Amino acid sequence: MKDLFGKAILDYQTGNSPEDLITETSITEEDEMSVAYLFRSYKEMPALEKKALQLAKGKVLDVGCGAGSHSLYLQNEKKLEVTAIDISEGAIEACTLRGIKNALCRNVLEFNSEKFDTIIMLMNGIGITGKLINISTYFQKLKSLLNPGGQILLDSSDIIYMFDEDEDGGKWIPAGDYYGEVVFTLHYKGETEIPFNWLYVDYNTLQNAAHANGLNCELVAEGDHYDYLARLSLMD
User: Fold this and answer.
1) What's this model's pTM, rounded to 2 decimal places?
2) Which domains does the chain have, with CATH numbers?
3) Pairwise CA distance, residues 219 & 191, whole Å
């Protein structure tokens, strides 16, 4: 990986002529994404993210922290002990520059050091699983990182709305893979990242996967556009 995502974040943080990220997926055309959005304040965050941050408690692990805006709020405003992790070296360097006390370049599947009361995976953080078949591996790992009474807060979207309807109102969904599995391609400053798998998961599928892995799953809130916030916890 060229870490173009991290390069864009670090460029913005250091004032190194940041440009918009260009994203495209296997089901969408190219789209521009302002890097500034990743540095948004609490007031600028969507309602689902605000709700997740309100619910966060105790010792927190921010998985896929990106530019670290969620971690910063929890650390500075709620005075919680936060560990921010991401596989992007550039993102973690920016997080450190922004003042996050414990920002580490780590893959959550290889993270073993401690346990947490809250794990957050926001901005469709569950997407890092890539494909639905991998979700059990991640859920088992996340379970091992939770303290008794702990919680996982994550948001995602049901992207069924992106597929065309037939005359009877049914959806034209490609056969084979789960429809929420997409391939992302990222462009930045004339460079192109190696395409990577990303997962959007509808709530019912998430709930079934959680239950299959010994996790309770609660629908906390729904957004305006097929998105939702879920809370997972250890089954008694």
Assistant:
1) 0.94
2) 4-234 (3.40.50.150)
3) 39
